[in-house]
Amino acid sequence: MLKKFYILKRDIFLTTTKKLQNYNKYFNIFLDIFLITEPFIFTISYIIISLHQNEYNQIRDTISRISLGEHSKFQDINFIIFGIYLFFISKFLLSSVKKNQNFIPILITSTTISLTIFRSGINSNIYKSNIENWTHTSFAFFLGCLGIIFFINYIKNLQKTSIWKNNIFLKHITIFIFITSIFQMFLLAVGIFGLYKPILNHRGIIEKIAVSEILLWLEINFLIHKFKNKL
Known about the structure:
Helix content: over 70%
Radius of gyration: 22 Å
Oligomer: single chain
Number of helices: 7
Strand content: under 5%
Number of domains: 1
Number of strands: 0
Distance between the termini: 55 Å
């Protein structure tokens, strides 16, 4: 009797383990597809949504400004999905170079989702003009600081790997993205602090170029890590 019970218990355990392994396999496949496609989906989505907003100016207005106009709910969803992407991509990259570093992606994701919810809550004609600039500047600054912390932490550990040592292209694209991002942040700071306010008329396009460059860099790093044994 005890032997039959043991055999039954073992069979249940093995069956459950096998199912979990299959689910995990399918989840990893889905996650890989998500991490490869989401940067393109996010970019195409916000462009399409912005084109359906009458007062939105592609050169002047930032991406988050879409959440304060028509069809803002679609952009809110786009931001939340993008926040999930930031969580998984930063977790993947950090875990690829060093274990047990999960606090940064959690902060990035919570900040992105908080940004979406908070900006949705102030979507009113009365307070829009006054609160919009404050929320965009403060959240963008906080998210930018988290991005810099992630970048430094990731690069510091990446330099210890063979990927960094053997991949000249990755070195060059990383240096290029870093220099251009600093320059773009400098331009925005010049406008925000009133040193040359006319530049704020172009803050939208500056931000969009910066975001596109960073997404491209994340995509390249993901592909290099994911397929490093096949390259």
